[in-house]
Write a structure and sequence with these properties.
This protein is of the alpha+beta class and 75 residues long. It is built from one helix and three strands; from the N terminus they run βββα. Helices cover 40% and strands 27% of the residues. It is elongated. The model has no long low-confidence stretch (mean pLDDT 90). It comes from Desulfofundulus luciae.
Length: 75
């Protein structure tokens, strides 16, 4: 992991077109602004993990449903 020190108003650039700006620092909280192209999805990590888990569950459910339908057709 790369660790950088930034102050309010300072930023960092990821690749050519993603910019992360420190908007505010209050106690233990840091507010970040993110400038990225519309095709780049930006999520908080906990939301991203939830979406990934739901996608895995949906994929698993779809596979199971397909298998059940195949078994029913064979019967």
């Amino acid at each position: 992991m790369l660790v950088l020190t930034r102050k309010k108003g300072q930023s960092l650039v990821i690749g050519r077109d993603i910019r992360v700006v420190v908007v505010e620092v209050t106690g233990d909280f840091v507010r970040l602004g993110i400038e990225a192209p519309p095709e780049v999805a930006v999520y908080r990590e906990e939301i991203y993990r939830t979406v990934q888990e739901e996608n895995r569950a949906a994929t698993t459910s779809a596979k199971i449903l397909k298998e059940i339908k195949g078994q029913v057709k064979r019967s």
